[in-house]
Amino acid sequence: MPLFSARRLFYKFLMMTLEEFAGAIRQSREIVVFTGAGISTESGIPDFRSPGGIWSRYRAVSFQEFIRSEESRIEAWKRRLETYAVDKNAKPNIGHYFVQSLNERGKLIGLITQNVDGLHSQSGLPEDKIVELHGSNRTIRCLECNKSYEPAIIMERLAGNFSSPRCDDCGGILKSATISFGQAMPERAMRQAQEWTEQARIFIVMGSSLQVQPAASFPVIARRNGAVLAIINREPTTLDEYASFAHNGAIGEFCQRFNTMIADG
Ligand code: NAD
């Protein structure tokens, strides 16, 4: 389509080189980073959509199914038990520390993450600089009385016994404090993410396929506001051609090289 090609050509013309992007980072103190599952694969946590990822072995249980049926809850808890065995020993990697160092140097407005693994906070990034759009799997909550539980306690109860766990106090249904398909997005987190996105002069996407909405709308908003949009992802995303800088490769390798390029900024 001619219009589409013209737009593509236009954005290609505006693309930055790696050196120009590094220069922009050195000068800026208004950076927002947006991360997805891809930043944690090098910590051993699989993403959802890469081959061998979680979607290739489990289907997503929607919030409505989880509430409605014990069978669906069991399915969801079986998946959680399997992923917990990996998550609980995972440690932050160079990508998480890259974001943390932007903050240490006074460059970061905030981090918006789709991840639920808590690795950004484990890397030392303060809680008030983190928005977890899809909640956190470091807590389990009662859907009735909101009592919270350490995952380790519930996981121990689950092993070998497959009925879904219930709240000790009120008997309510327990669920990981993550946002499932069909569940409302957390209002405060969405508001904070919107605010940061509007303030960003540089908006960096790291390790997201940008297929999950409404999260994937933030890079578009930032770009429309005139921010430099950078995308670092192993596979191309549909927004690459719209970005100011796009790198298709592993985050670890990229950060290793990039850290030295921005060191004196
Ligand atoms: P996604 O699985 O849709 O996309 C991940 C992207 O990361 C892929 O495009 C892949 O090519 C890329 N990638 C993988 N490893 C990489 C690496 N080392 N370097 C660079 N790129 C890499 O993930 P998403 O966009 O975050 O959306 C999926 C949903 O999955 C989110 O809602 C998130 O809540 C959830 N999720 C979270 C975790 C976690 O907390 N770690 C893990 C799996 C899924």
Write a brief caption for the model.
38% of the residues lie in helices and 17% in strands. The chain is of the alpha/beta class. The strands form 2 sheets. It has a 6-stranded parallel beta sheet, with helices on both faces.
What does this protein look like?
It is a single chain. The chain is elongated and about 55 Å long. The strands form 2 sheets. The protein has a 6-stranded parallel β-sheet, sandwiched between helices. It has helices at 2-14, 18-27, 63-68, 70-87, 94-104, 119-122, 151-158, 187-199, 217-224, 251-261; strands at residues 31-35, 108-113, 130-132, 135-142, 148-149, 174-178, 202-206, 228-233, 245-248. The chain starts with a helix and ends with a helix. Helix 8 (187-199) runs parallel beside helix 9. It is built from 10 helices and 9 strands. The protein has 265 residues and is α/β, with parallel strands linked by helices. Helix content is 38%, strand content 17%. It binds nicotinamide-adenine-dinucleotide (NAD).
Helix fraction by DSSP (H/I, runs of at least 4): 25-40%
Q: In percent terms, what proportion of residues is strand?
A: 15-25%
Mean pLDDT: 92
**Helical region count?**
10
Secondary structure category:
alpha/beta
In this entry the ligands are: nicotinamide-adenine-dinucleotide
Q: How many runs of DSSP E, i.e. beta strands?
A: 9
Biggest sheet: strand arrangement:
3-2-1-7-8-9
Shape field: elongated
Termini separation (Å)? 42 Å
Main beta-sheet strand count, sense and barrel state:
6 strands, parallel
Alpha-carbon Rg, integer: 20 Å
Low-confidence stretches: none
H/E series, N to C?
HHEHHHEHEEEHEHEHEEH
